[in-house]
Design a protein that fits this description.
single chain; YaeB-like fold; about 30% strand
Amino acid sequence: MKLELAPRAVRDAERHAHWWREHRPAARLLFDQELAAALEQIRTQPESGLTYPGIVGNDYRRLLLPRTRFHVYYRLAAPDRIRVVAIWGAVRERGPRLR
Protein backbone atom coordinates (compact mmCIF):
# COMPACT_ATOMS: atom_id res chain seq x y z
CA MET A 1 0.00 0.00 0.00
CA LYS A 2 1.04 3.54 -0.66
CA LEU A 3 1.20 5.81 2.40
CA GLU A 4 0.89 9.58 2.18
CA LEU A 5 0.89 12.28 4.85
CA ALA A 6 -1.49 15.21 4.60
CA PRO A 7 0.17 18.63 5.03
CA ARG A 8 -1.33 18.88 8.51
CA ALA A 9 0.19 15.52 9.51
CA VAL A 10 3.60 16.65 8.24
CA ARG A 11 3.35 19.85 10.32
CA ASP A 12 2.22 17.85 13.36
CA ALA A 13 5.13 15.40 13.00
CA GLU A 14 7.69 18.18 12.61
CA ARG A 15 6.34 20.12 15.59
CA HIS A 16 6.18 17.08 17.89
CA ALA A 17 9.63 15.84 16.84
CA HIS A 18 11.15 19.26 17.50
CA TRP A 19 9.52 19.48 20.92
CA TRP A 20 10.64 15.96 21.80
CA ARG A 21 14.26 16.66 20.84
CA GLU A 22 14.28 19.88 22.87
CA HIS A 23 12.54 18.58 26.01
CA ARG A 24 13.51 14.91 26.22
CA PRO A 25 17.33 14.88 26.07
CA ALA A 26 17.56 11.27 27.30
CA ALA A 27 15.39 10.06 24.40
CA ARG A 28 15.70 12.70 21.69
CA LEU A 29 14.81 10.38 18.83
CA LEU A 30 12.08 8.37 20.53
CA PHE A 31 9.22 10.20 18.81
CA ASP A 32 10.88 9.84 15.39
CA GLN A 33 11.51 6.13 15.95
CA GLU A 34 8.01 5.42 17.22
CA LEU A 35 6.41 7.36 14.40
CA ALA A 36 8.50 5.56 11.75
CA ALA A 37 7.52 2.18 13.20
CA ALA A 38 3.84 3.19 13.35
CA LEU A 39 3.83 4.42 9.76
CA GLU A 40 5.33 1.13 8.59
CA GLN A 41 2.73 -0.80 10.59
CA ILE A 42 -0.07 1.30 9.10
CA ARG A 43 1.33 0.80 5.59
CA THR A 44 1.61 -2.97 5.92
CA GLN A 45 -1.34 -3.62 8.25
CA PRO A 46 -3.86 -0.80 7.73
CA GLU A 47 -6.55 -2.58 9.73
CA SER A 48 -4.36 -2.64 12.86
CA GLY A 49 -5.48 0.78 14.06
CA LEU A 50 -8.67 1.16 16.04
CA THR A 51 -11.64 2.70 14.29
CA TYR A 52 -12.20 6.29 15.34
CA PRO A 53 -15.87 6.91 16.14
CA GLY A 54 -17.85 10.02 15.55
CA ILE A 55 -17.47 10.58 11.82
CA VAL A 56 -20.27 8.98 9.85
CA GLY A 57 -19.38 7.67 6.42
CA ASN A 58 -15.60 7.83 6.83
CA ASP A 59 -13.24 5.06 7.80
CA TYR A 60 -10.84 6.90 10.11
CA ARG A 61 -8.55 4.91 12.36
CA ARG A 62 -5.96 5.74 14.95
CA LEU A 63 -2.85 3.99 16.16
CA LEU A 64 -1.22 4.74 19.51
CA LEU A 65 2.49 5.49 19.88
CA PRO A 66 2.69 3.91 23.35
CA ARG A 67 5.84 5.49 24.76
CA THR A 68 5.37 9.04 23.48
CA ARG A 69 1.57 8.90 23.87
CA PHE A 70 0.49 10.26 20.52
CA HIS A 71 -2.17 8.94 18.18
CA VAL A 72 -1.65 8.73 14.43
CA TYR A 73 -4.99 9.34 12.67
CA TYR A 74 -5.43 7.93 9.18
CA ARG A 75 -7.93 6.64 6.68
CA LEU A 76 -8.05 4.43 3.66
CA ALA A 77 -8.17 7.01 0.87
CA ALA A 78 -8.36 4.44 -1.93
CA PRO A 79 -8.04 0.66 -2.17
CA ASP A 80 -4.27 1.00 -2.51
CA ARG A 81 -3.63 4.27 -0.63
CA ILE A 82 -3.59 5.30 3.04
CA ARG A 83 -3.62 8.95 4.08
CA VAL A 84 -2.31 10.01 7.50
CA VAL A 85 -4.32 13.09 8.45
CA ALA A 86 -3.10 14.08 11.94
CA ILE A 87 -0.78 13.22 14.80
CA TRP A 88 -2.39 14.21 18.08
CA GLY A 89 -1.53 13.92 21.76
CA ALA A 90 -3.40 10.96 23.25
CA VAL A 91 -3.68 12.68 26.64
CA ARG A 92 -5.80 15.52 25.26
CA GLU A 93 -9.42 15.41 26.30
CA ARG A 94 -10.64 15.31 22.71
CA GLY A 95 -9.48 14.16 19.32
CA PRO A 96 -8.58 16.39 16.38
CA ARG A 97 -11.06 17.79 13.92
CA LEU A 98 -10.78 15.56 10.92
CA ARG A 99 -13.15 17.31 8.54
